[in-house]
């Protein structure tokens, strides 16, 4: 399995996940997702792939802690000004920890720019506003929802 980092095209910052203390599944998830200017252990994820192009991002630093997305109050197709919902971590990989990788509009496959869409809540995308250190959810895919998934090691 590949170790990857998730880089925002808009800000150039990396997704970071603090999974300290997560040792069991909890309602609402746990930990904190935020942005970082470099790739360290908290910015590295193990990319799990399965049938039908479904992926999951397990923290490389915190064993069995997965990136989680919940799109509360973010309707599919909507543009919520500051974003919404919640992005954090969860012990184990359930439905809210699975994603689809979508090619960005206008990317002919040469640049590798993608959106990270919730598999359980279609049309809701990971959003990262690097200048404000905000990681949350958007109901459509635009500049703050465009990423490069960089392979660190395989």
What does this protein structure show overall?
There is one protein chain. The chain is mostly beta strands. It is 0% helix and 44% strand. The protein contains no helices and 12 strands. It has strands spanning 2-8, 14-18, 32-36, 45-49, 54-59, 65-70, 86-91, 99-103, 114-118, 125-129, 134-138, 147-153. Strands 9-8-5-4-1-12 form a 6-stranded antiparallel sheet, with no helix packed on it. It has a two-stranded antiparallel sheet with strand order 2-3. It has a two-stranded antiparallel ribbon with strand order 6-7. The termini are close together. 43% of the residues are buried. The mean pLDDT is 94.
What is the topology?
Elements: E1 2-8, E2 14-18, E3 32-36, E4 45-49, E5 54-59, E6 65-70, E7 86-91, E8 99-103, E9 114-118, E10 125-129, E11 134-138, E12 147-153
Antiparallel strand pairs: 1-4, 1-12, 2-3, 4-5, 5-8, 6-7, 8-9, 10-11
Name some characteristics of this structure.
six-stranded antiparallel beta sheet, mainly beta, 12 strands, 154 residues, two-stranded antiparallel ribbon
Quick description:
This protein is an all-beta fold and 154 residues long. The protein contains no helices and 12 strands.
């Amino acid at each position: 399995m590949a170790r990857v980092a998730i880089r925002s095209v808009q800000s150039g910052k990396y997704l970071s996940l603090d999974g300290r203390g997560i040792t069991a599944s909890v309602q609402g998830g746990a930990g904190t997702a935020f942005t970082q200017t470099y790739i360290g252990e908290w910015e590295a994820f193990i990319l799990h792939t399965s049938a039908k192009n479904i992926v999951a991002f397990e923290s490389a630093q915190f064993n069995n802690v997965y990136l989680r997305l919940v799109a509360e109050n973010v309707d599919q197709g909507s543009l919520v000004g500051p974003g919404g919902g919640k992005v954090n971590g969860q012990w184990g990989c359930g439905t809210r920890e699975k994603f689809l990788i979508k090619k960005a509009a206008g990317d002919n496959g040469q640049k590798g720019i993608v959106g990270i869409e919730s598999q359980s809540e279609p049309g809701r995308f990971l959003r990262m506003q690097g200048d404000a250190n905000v990681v949350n959810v958007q109901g459509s895919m635009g500049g703050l929802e465009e990423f490069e998934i960089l392979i660190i090691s395989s």
